[in-house]
Amino acid sequence: MMRNNVLKMATLALLGFLVVACNDDFLETQPLSQASDVSVWSDAKLAEAAVLDLYQGTWAGTLTREETTDAFTDQAVFTHPGRGVDGYTEGKMSPDYSSFIQFQWISWPHLYPFVRGCNIAIQKLTENEAEFSADLVDPLLGEAYFMRAYYYTQLMRQFGGVVLLTEPLSLDAEANNPRATFEETVNLIVSDLDQAIALLDGVEPSKQRAHKITAMALKSRVLTHVASDLYEPTKASSVSTIASYSNPELIGWTGGSQAQRWEAAKAASKALLDATTGYKLDYAAPASQEEAIQNYEDIWLQGDQNQDYIWGRSIEEFGFNSRTYPGGNEWSQGPGMVALYHGPNGYHEWAGTTPTEALVSKYTFADGTAFDWDNPVHAAAPYDNREARFYATFLYDGGPWKQRTDDVVKFDKFNEIQTGFYTLSDGTIINGVDTRQGPIEDWNGSRTGYYFRKFSDPGQPASWPNNLQKVDAPYLRYSEVLLNYVEASINTNDEGEAVAWLNKLRFRNGLPAVTESGAALMELYKRERDKELVNEDARLFDMKRWLEGPYSLDKQVQQILIQAVQKPGTTVTDYRKDTSKFDYTYRPTDIVLENRLWRDHVYFMPIEQEEIDKDPSIIQNPGY
């Protein structure tokens, strides 16, 4: 396997190391294609450039492209068919890799070149033939260990045990690199993170480059993930493909105690929580609705300037023209285009990934009451008095948004989202400007009646591409670690601690204190996590590790069908949402876009058959 495709790609990546002028623009690119291996590791600046290039394999995470991993779950749907998203949602994945889309930042063939880059850096910095000072070597070595742990984590969460390479292989190396067990894979990741924590101790904190806090946060994620039921044989045996798999050591634990693993996860998460601080977690009671909306928006709109943001792809430092973030001339991929990717067609945007009604229904009312379509009071005004994150996360019918472009003002003079159908007293039907039946780019309209507001800058005019937004892509947040700690506390029967920390998050978001316990507390926690981390690459992995595949995907996507009829005796000149002039009805309705269903083999990704053909020692995952 490694002898051909992956090693070849890795070698090309090595020859493309980037020169850096300073840390502020450390991912700006200028290829060193003529640099020899010796010259790279004998020059301090080139050695640093080689380590910094390792970060390129993160791309821009979930903000890289028009599709997001939430579209593989109950929380979102991808609007445009034919892109391979249904490979996940309909369980059509196969080892030939032709039936589903691959995302670079979680892809076997895309990430192994960066693993090899990490191995080269670790080897060369450990040998230190240039006799660099420890002040230079230790931080760079710590970053290399961290990035190797990060890439193996991305692979482990997709495949289970993977091929573990800890030394750089040459192009003529023998193709005999079998998968490590799940336990061996986890042990290497944790060992690398412990190395990184030690080597990066005292390094100046950064939101772009790894330091001690970054490694601690990733350790919390890893230990939380691997303590979960997907990897515990007594729990995962309910899954058909896992129960019948002849190599269980590749996809889960074969010994040890799940209780001990949860204790380890709890300790790792608490260590991070104690080592730094989060954002506005000191409320003694729920924040006001207005303040809570702003709190949530601040976290992603302020990006790396916010305390909650631990590590990610910072758009200013990243720039618009680096190797895995192509761009230039006001064209970009990733965070700069998120508004265009997901925004309303009535703003000339693409409605790429849009929220499902299943996600929207997870959001409670401001007082914490669950929303229920079967309750006629709820169904009559579904967008009134919802919890704060609802308004910071979604664009919905009648909700305020940006100034319309000049050609759209004639359809909407009030800058309010229109995803309904409005019948005037003379029988005229107005198709909302943001619907698929509207007058503006109807092929780009939402199929669900909702759009994502999260990660779109409300202050940036809808005039792409002249005004690319500056929204950073978070990879690790303090709030995620807080949630990890809550989950581990529940699983170690420490509900008091779980509730205390969950209330910190809920108060910041304007929600009342938790009253649940037992199974109800775990359910509340899970849905709290879904909402807090929406579109941050969390739900896909959470639904798998919680064994929630059927809960998530054994149901069709629903749209919200909104119809309004003008009241007799009223006058309407220009339409806007107005309950004094219109009677509104809202009806969740199945749509036929994907034939969503859950298949158990989707808990683990297939290894590409081409890789197995090159190295028959690699064993395929269950169900393929």
Could you describe the 3D structure shown?
With 624 residues, the chain is an alpha+beta fold. The chain is 37% helix and 7% strand. The chain has helices at residues 2-14, 37-40, 44-52, 86-89, 108-127, 134-159, 182-199, 212-226, 233-236, 240-243, 258-275, 289-301, 315-318, 338-342, 357-360, 376-380, 388-393, 478-491, 495-508, 518-532, 539-545, 549-553, 609-614, and strands at residues 76-78, 309-313, 353-355, 394-395, 421-423, 429-431, 451-452, 473-477, 558-566, 582-590. Helix 1 packs across helix 5 (108-127) and helix 6 (134-159) packs antiparallel against helix 7 (182-199).
Question: Main attributes?
Answer:
about 625 residues, alpha+beta, four-stranded mixed sheet, two-stranded antiparallel ribbon, 23 helices, about 35% helix, globular, disordered N terminus
The number of E-state strands comes to: 10
Helical element count?
23
Strand order of the largest sheet: 6-5-9-10
What portion of the residues fall into strands of 2 or more residues?
5-15%
Structural class: alpha+beta
Amino-to-carboxy terminus distance = 18 Å
Largest sheet features: 4 strands, mixed
Oligomer: single chain
Helix content: 25-40%
How large is the radius of gyration?
25 Å
Mean pLDDT: 91
Overall 3D shape: globular
Q: Note poorly predicted spans.
A: 1-35
Secondary structure layout:
Blueprint: H1 2-14, H2 37-40, H3 44-52, E1 76-78, H4 86-89, H5 108-127, H6 134-159, H7 182-199, H8 212-226, H9 233-236, H10 240-243, H11 258-275, H12 289-301, E2 309-313, H13 315-318, H14 338-342, E3 353-355, H15 357-360, H16 376-380, H17 388-393, E4 394-395, E5 421-423, E6 429-431, E7 451-452, E8 473-477, H18 478-491, H19 495-508, H20 518-532, H21 539-545, H22 549-553, E9 558-566, E10 582-590, H23 609-614
Helix pairs in contact: 1-5, 3-6, 5-6, 6-7, 6-8, 7-8, 8-11, 8-18, 11-18, 18-19, 18-20
